[in-house]
Amino acid sequence: MRPQLADMARGQQKIQSQQKNAKKQAGQKKKQGHDQKAAAKAALIYTCTVCRTQMPDPKTFKQHFESKHPKTPLPPELADVQA
Hints:
By secondary structure, this protein is mostly helical. 60% of the residues lie in helices and 5% in strands. The protein has a two-stranded antiparallel ribbon. A hairpin with a 6-residue loop joins strand 1 and strand 2.
């Protein structure tokens, strides 16, 4: 009867260990879930009509347009933006 008691105790430890490991794995997946590349790409919402470069805000877009494409007329969406 002794071996059965040892097996039962080890069985309980095994179950606890599996639960602990599952919780740890879920925590690792949560940490890993934030994708910086995807977040950065989603932040780039303005696209230059000339060179197709993407920028995060209208101020940067206007500065880019004025420095990289000075001979091209300013797009109407940038006319009232303060650079």
